[in-house]
Amino acid sequence: MDGKGAGFLETIRALTFDVFGTVVDWRGSILTEGQRLGAARGIHIDWAQFADAWRSGYRPSMDAVRRGDSPWVNLDVLHRRLLDDLLVRFGVQGLSEDDRVELNRVWHRLQPWPDAVEGLQRLKRRYTIATLSNGHVALLTNMAKSAGLPWDCVLSAELARHYKPDVEVYQTAANLLDLEPRQVMMVAAHESDLQAARRVGFRTAFVYRPLEFGPTGQPDLPGVSQADVNADDFLHLASQLGA
Amino acid sequence: MDGKGAGFLETIRALTFDVFGTVVDWRGSILTEGQRLGAARGIHIDWAQFADAWRSGYRPSMDAVRRGDSPWVNLDVLHRRLLDDLLVRFGVQGLSEDDRVELNRVWHRLQPWPDAVEGLQRLKRRYTIATLSNGHVALLTNMAKSAGLPWDCVLSAELARHYKPDVEVYQTAANLLDLEPRQVMMVAAHESDLQAARRVGFRTAFVYRPLEFGPTGQPDLPGVSQADVNADDFLHLASQLGA
Question: Nearest by CB to B176, which of A138, A145, A177?
Answer without folding.
Answer: A138
